[in-house]
């Protein structure tokens, strides 16, 4: 009986962890389908943040955000926090921002794990009613 209970507990914990936005995610360019980077999404002070851990194109590993404003201008993209201040809102996170380092633009953001595939993260950046959604893959 204990073994059966332990088995179901492990399954439950795995299902709950599979639904979290935290962890490592591989970014995919929504226009080209090219894998671009690994972003670590983490919780800090009750909010969600995301940092570029690795740029996958080794020729661009040292790229800086030359189009960014403020303290991120001319800073390395690798190691940069690009998702900031997200708060849980039902099954998604919102209320924060995402930075597109290639364009140097910051957008309002929503994040949610795909309910049919917990290894896919929906990442939506938007201005007013215009938006763009990317689908990032969980790194095992």
From TrEMBL:
DUF2147 domain: which residues? 23-138
**Transmembrane residue ranges:** none
Q: Where is the signal peptide?
A: 1-18
Q: Which UniProt keywords apply?
A: Signal
The UniProt entry, under Pfam families, shows: DUF2147 (PF09917)
What InterPro entries would the database entry show? DUF2147
Instruction: Give the domain of life.
Output: Bacteria
Protein known as:
DUF2147 domain-containing protein
């Amino acid at each position: 009986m204990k073994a059966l209970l332990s088995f179901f507990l492990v399954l439950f914990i795995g299902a709950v962890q599979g639904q979290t936005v935290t962890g490592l995610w591989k970014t995919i360019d929504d226009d080209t389908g090219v894998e671009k980077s690994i972003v670590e999404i983490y919780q800090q002070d009750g909010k969600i943040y995301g940092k570029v851990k690795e740029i996958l194109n080794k020729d661009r590993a040292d790229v800086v955000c030359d189009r960014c404003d403020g303290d991120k201008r001319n800073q390395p993209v690798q190691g940069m926090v690009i998702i900031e201040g997200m708060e849980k809102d039902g099954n998604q996170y919102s209320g924060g921002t995402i930075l597109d380092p290639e364009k140097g633009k910051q957008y309002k953001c929503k994040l949610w794990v795909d309910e049919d595939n917990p290894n896919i993260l929906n990442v939506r950046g938007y201005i007013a009613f215009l938006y763009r959604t990317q689908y990032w893959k969980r790194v095992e």
